[in-house]
Specification:
This protein is an alpha+beta fold and about 160 residues long. It has helices spanning about 5-20, 30, 65-75, 110-120, 125-140, 145-150, and strands at about 50, 55-60, 85, 90-95, 100. A 3-stranded antiparallel beta sheet has the order 3-4-5, with no helix packed on it. Strands 1-2 form a two-stranded antiparallel ribbon. The mean pLDDT is about 85.
Length: about 160
């Protein structure tokens, strides 16, 4: 290729792309349209508020047995997230006072049994976890596992 042909090739290439460098484009009409978005309200949040005298917990899921759980929490711990000996002299944990096994390990006993039964994993000292597992238990006929259910005649 001669020097003149190479120079002409560079000039043609420059002229072919020059309009784009100035912001002009044959696609300008298509690409420059404003975007149109449909704005929708957020989906309704699924959460529940479980509360009693001087305490309350907001959990990020729907609680089916909220009234029973509120009464149990009020009776078992008065809403205080605590670990302490229960009436059977075993340690119990959390707002719903899940009884430990004789090994006295956090998360043993009732919690461990129900975790396996419902394939649920959490901790009895995390109020949302305790409320979730209690809701599963009550929905499946285990309300009587709490002494307070008998005291309050919840069955």
């Amino acid at each position: 290729m001669t020097a003149t042909a190479a120079t002409l090739k560079r000039i043609y290439a420059f002229l072919a792309f020059f309009p784009f460098s100035l912001g002009f484009s044959p696609l300008y009409g298509i690409l420059s349209r404003p975007a149109v978005y449909q704005v929708l309200p957020p989906p309704p949040a699924s959460y529940s508020v479980i509360s009693g005298h001087g305490w309350g917990y907001t959990v990020p899921f729907e609680v089916k047995n909220a009234a029973d759980i509120e009464k149990l929490i009020q009776c078992e711990s008065q809403g205080v997230n605590i670990s302490r000996p229960d009436s059977n002299r075993r340690m119990s944990d959390g707002v719903l006072q899940f009884n430990r096994s004789p090994s006295d390990v956090l998360g043993s006993g009732t919690w461990s049994d129900m975790e396996r039964r419902f394939n649920y994993h959490g901790s009895p000292v995390v109020p949302a976890d305790a409320i979730h597992l209690a809701d599963l238990m009550i929905s499946n006929g285990f309300l009587e596992r709490w002494t307070c259910s008998k005291i309050l005649k919840l069955h």
